[in-house]
């Protein structure tokens, strides 16, 4: 009897146990407020063992993301803070499993604007289903726009699909708060979800 058979027969039970294990693992890895390459490699091994039998989108997405981080053998500061935010959110059971956060909890533009890229300045914050932040930024550059840090010249702030209910307390929450304040002051900055941004690619 292989894992795939057990997944078909007791998929719900397996998924539930996997999520509980991953929450415990995430809590342990994020407990000291930092994460090193050896810990990311340990996480990668656990995800590799569980991704095949899992029907949880977060496990598959996290596995892909960890592989991307380890591809170049370097855990840079962006990757570090993004992964730490993700693990903290997950260990607090504060994660939307594969779903975009309910729009009412985020200060999104309503109605959401039509997005263009040529000559426009984008900023990305949070954890993205599309890929690492550098992949999102490359998608903008390929379409004639620019992407980087949040400034008063930023046209669009894109919030990753894996935002959490506690976004105000996470490191990416600072950008959302700042962009909202600038928008309230009359600066023409749009705040949109990753899923809205992807529709215009």
From TrEMBL:
<dbReference type="GO" id="GO:0016874">
    <property type="term" value="F:ligase activity"/>
</dbReference>
<dbReference type="InterPro" id="IPR036420">
    <property type="entry name" value="BRCT_dom_sf"/>
</dbReference>
<protein>
    <submittedName>
        <fullName>NAD-dependent DNA ligase</fullName>
    </submittedName>
</protein>
<keyword id="KW-0436">Ligase</keyword>
């Amino acid at each position: 009897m292989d894992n795939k058979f057990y997944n078909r027969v007791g998929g719900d039970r397996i998924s539930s146990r996997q999520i509980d294990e991953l929450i415990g693992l995430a809590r342990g890895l994020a407990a000291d407020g930092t994460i090193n390459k050896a810990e990311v490699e340990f996480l990668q091994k656990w995800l590799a063992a569980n991704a095949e039998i899992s029907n949880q989108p977060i496990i598959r997405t996290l596995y892909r993301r960890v592989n991307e981080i380890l591809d170049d053998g370097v855990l840079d500061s962006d990757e570090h803070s993004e992964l730490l935010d993700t693990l903290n959110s997950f260990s607090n059971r504060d994660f939307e499993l594969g779903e975009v956060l309910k729009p009412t909890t985020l200060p999104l533009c309503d109605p959401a604007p039509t997005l263009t890229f040529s000559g426009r300045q984008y900023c990305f914050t949070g954890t993205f289903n599309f890929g690492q932040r550098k992949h999102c930024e490359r998608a903008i550059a390929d379409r004639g726009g620019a992407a980087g840090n949040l400034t008063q010249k930023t046209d669009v702030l894109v919030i990753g699909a894996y935002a959490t209910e506690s976004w105000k307390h996470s490191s990416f929450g600072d950008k959302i708060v700042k962009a909202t304040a600038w928008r309230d002051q009359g600066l023409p900055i749009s705040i949109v979800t990753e899923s809205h941004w992807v529709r215009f690619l």
